[in-house]
Write a structure and sequence with these properties.
two-stranded antiparallel sheet; globular
Length: 294
């Protein structure tokens, strides 16, 4: 394999992993824009989605497509529960109690899953039985192709939803100014609940996609959440496009660092990228610099 093929192979793998970061980062951004709060349980949505998918496949022996739809349905219901159980009771408080509430929810979810499924990491079935195929010296893993394809569909769907539907306009109005949206007759509480549902579904989708690659475990959500949160800062805190680009960039940097420098320390290079952005461009790639008057 020549250098070009190696680089393309590394790039392909990095984009696939980065796509997972992007999906979870989108969930972060949507909640931030809707509530002005960081949901530190976002990574656990991915964990729950993966475990829900595994349960449908192994315990209930359902077909893959039906297990996929039911796992997403579980995450939809969980989004409603999370909204009313974690955010809604503290909605009129400052952001700090809500953040602490999401942290508490994260700990609760991890320990609950640990009690039910145990600490052992478990495999998740791939979408396709085939491992993949080779094109021009580059092996295209079937699961990575699925990850990239589903991420593209999810991004296109989100663009259509927010730019070309009435519901999307209401969601945007709520995220920009809740008081004004309320005066215009928009049911703000419902819009926030829909945002939590969508965010939980995105997280669950990410977990289902990455489960066959990372294995399904209690700690998978925490790892993904750290990377996704870093992606939101790199791309521009609260920016939707930034979340996508930041996630892809972080995945590619980690992939090349692992291939050419050190596999055990590839995560460190991802956080090094975050540190560099905080130093030279703290507002992120798509963020706008805000000036303050003394």
């Amino acid at each position: 394999m020549d250098n070009l093929s190696i680089n393309l192979q590394v790039l392909f793998s990095g984009l696939a992993v980065g796509a997972i970061y992007s999906l979870v980062a989108l969930g972060f951004v949507l909640i931030i824009r809707a509530t002005n709060v960081v949901n530190f349980a976002q990574g656990d949505f991915a964990m729950l989605g993966a475990f829900a998918m595994m349960t449908m496949l192994t315990l209930f022996k359902l077909p893959y497509w039906l297990s996929f739809l039911l796992a997403l349905a579980v995450m939809t219901v969980f989004g409603v529960i999370f909204n009313y159980g974690v955010y809604y009771p503290l909605r009129n408080r400052s952001f700090l109690p809500v953040i602490i509430s999401t942290l508490g929810a994260s700990i609760f979810l991890q320990n609950t899953v640990l009690a039910v499924f145990g600490p052992q990491a478990q495999p998740l079935e791939k979408v396709f039985k085939s491992s993949g195929f080779e094109v021009g010296g580059v092996f295209l893993d079937s699961q990575y192709l699925v990850i990239l394809a589903v991420t593209v569909v999810a991004v296109v769907f989100q663009y259509f939803l927010f730019e070309h539907t009435l519901l999307g306009k209401k969601l945007q109005a709520t995220s920009q100014d809740k008081d004004m949206a309320r005066l215009l007759g928009i049911p703000v509480a419902w819009m926030i609940m829909i945002t939590f549902i969508y965010s939980a579904t995105l997280g669950g989708l990410a977990g289902i996609l990455i489960g066959p690659v990372l294995f399904v475990s209690i700690g998978m959500g925490s790892i993904i959440a750290l990377k996704a949160f870093s992606a939101t800062i790199i791309g521009g805190f609260g920016d939707v496009t930034g979340a996508i680009v930041g996630g892809l960039l972080l995945g590619v940097v980690e992939s090349f660092a692992g291939a050419y420098i050190s596999v055990p320390y590839k995560d460190a290079f991802g956080f090094l990228l975050l540190f560099i952005f905080l130093l030279i461009r703290p507002q992120g790639i798509f963020g706008e610099k805000i000036s303050e008057k003394a």
